[in-house]
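Listing 4. Sequential folding, example run.
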Amino acid sequence: MDKLKRVLNGQDAEEQGGLGEIVDTTSLSWGTRVKGFIACFALGVLCSVLGTCLLWVPRKGLVLFAVFYTLGNIASLGSTFFLMGPMRQLKRMFEPTRLIATIVMLLCLILTLCSAFWWHNKGLALIFCILQFFALAWYSISFIPFARDAVKKCFTVCLS
């Protein structure tokens, strides 16, 4: 019956294949998606707050902050996968209007972890956490119509 609906709606007349069947069978109800979003977002906020609290631990505090803050941002970003679905979210992330913001955000996430684990440079880790915050904020407002223009205008007025 589903195949007939797809054909009548002008959708894929061919058999979907293995991946399409997996996507169809694993689709979540709206209530489950909202619960997944809330749980993942809450985990992200918890990790970010925990990272902020761990910032004051002697010696390893800055590294723990960088790691937990980055994991919190990844979890918060991943929470949107529940609402839109992973493929749609990834497509929207790499649209031309937010391509640069996405690349900078992902680069900051990676560089924060690199500076914490491999380079052992606390100063760089802190700088990348700050850049991560601004990159994620800029990326997030790209989903609100005209928000970037408003922020640009606000900064222009404040700095002139």
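-- end of first protein; second protein begins --
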Amino acid sequence: MEENMEEGQTQKGCLECCIKCLGGIPYASLIATILLYAGVALFCGCGHEALSGTVTILESYFEVVKGPVESLDVFTMIDIFKYVIYGVAAAFFVYGILLMVEGFFTTGAIRDLYGDFKITTCGRCVSAWFIMLTYIFMLAWLGVTAFTSLPVFMYFNIWTICQNTTVTEGANLCLDLRQFGIVTLTDEKKVCTNTEKFMRMCDSTELDMTFHLFICALAGAGAAVIAMAACSMVLIRNYVTLASQSLGKYCTRF
């Protein structure tokens, strides 16, 4: 009888401990961080592969040749964009961890473990710094989203022409890279609809895959914008709560 009572108390203690742990999780910060990781991973992965597909299309169908190492051509710019993608992936992996740590430290979990505490001026400054940095990152991701929409628009035009080759059978439409600023004005790199090269490009998997990869990269950048906006709202809410309750009697769980 006594052993059953002790087992029941032990189970009850474990249940209360689990409930306390789950109650201290900053769910809003957790969801925003997961969305941020998903958006950044989608943007970086799909963007990297889309840039590689663009190189293949330029070399195979437009016959664009890579210039000298010291020249700043389209291939050099693509390599630079790839390195930027590597940096973005690493930076936001670390930043997501920092956001989660800040979210946990502004919940009631720390207070429940270590008792009541006072919010220091340094803690409020760190929270304010995170708010400012997250807002700047949100604006930066808005710019990245707008920039990513440009190749989506370009590939959409090419993909539309390929899908309507029967309609444009009598016309001679040309895709000139000079219109997009990819090559210099003195370089004439174009593919016309009445050529075999254009038909091979439309039938190739590189064009369709690259187009859809850029769409996925655009979706990832949009998800990162939403995640940054959610993080900003969570951080602002936490900062206002901590600043107004500096005696530590109340802590948010966002």
